[in-house]
Give the backbone structure.
Amino acid sequence: MIRISSQQIFSGGISRMQDVNSNLVKTQEQISTGKKVNRPSDDPVAAARILKLNQEVKRIETYERNANLADNRIKQEESTLSSAVDIIQRVRELTVQAGSGSLSANDRQSISAELKERLGQLANIANTRDASGEYIFSGFQGSTPAFAKDDFGAWQYQGDEGQRVLEIDDGVTVPISDHGKGIFVNVPAAVSVTGSDDGTGTGVAAQGYVSGLELIAPKDLKDAFSPAVPDDLTVRVIDVGGGNLNIEVEDPRTGTILTTQPSPAVPGEEFVVAGLRMTVNDAADGDEFTLGISDKQSIFGTIEKLIAGLESIDKATPKSSAEYDALIAESLTNLDNGQESIILKQTELGGRLNAIESTSSFLEDSGLYTKEIRSQLQDVDYAEAISNLSFQSFVLQAAQQSFAQISRLSLFDRL
């Protein structure tokens, strides 16, 4: 026979009620918080996994914010460049209009006035700021306007050549800015012509036009040279005897004489070399010209040069008229190159947006999967928890009632 003391009865009853009450309180906490793991002691293994999953969710949310920021920045740049293309197109239309032979001096002045307005608009677009107030085309110099007028009133690039990038996933970065120098300044220029028509090294006219050499139509030079297009080509008129003159074109990098079509090339007749169609007129032995075929031009400089020509060239002489025609042709080529440069950048921006979109979709799917796994480990099943709460309440009530009955089992109750 086992004897149980009153102290044992009270200690055991109280301990049991405390255990049942503790489970009841834990279930109540789970229902109130919606989480079945509220502290590591509830489930150490699950708590460790939940901690890692929380860190993963935070990482994904950070990258999603970066992707959203990159998307907004690139879309703003894309919209800005679209406005720039529209302005350049209007400048091109005015340039074509200026090339009409029926325009008077006043007509050219009117075109020049509108070109000045368009130039100012283009500068404002190039100095666009983002939501934080930084200039989007200034590279790393976000607080400095991308373009400003110098002491001579010409628009000059003020930023650097930095490009900002943003990480949108582990090891995945995307550029979110482009410097204005690459978009508006370093644009392929029309083939320039310098040199002499008398063999003395003098006689270069304004606007890059040289009497005696007429550039008909420049073509794409990339396929004509390998591995890189030279900066210049040299065109010479040489006496081959018997009163005959031929033309040779040299690549100054190697000293190689390039083949002309037809061969030999002669003054006064059109010939093609390295993708360029040319005609040399009024030639004399010793004439030599340099073609700048890899020059760069600023879109701002092109418009400024066009404005200056409209206001200064009077077309009173055949030479000045030829200079004016050369200016119009050169301006149109440069404006087309400027538009192409911006459109190529827009294409590049489209590729970046596609990359951001695909990465954002991946992050969204990863976030949903991670949250689902975390929910399975962490979130409470309310139906199960409420059922447990009801059962634990019943058990606690039964324990309390039984303890009240057992606690009265004493010899003193029989006296």
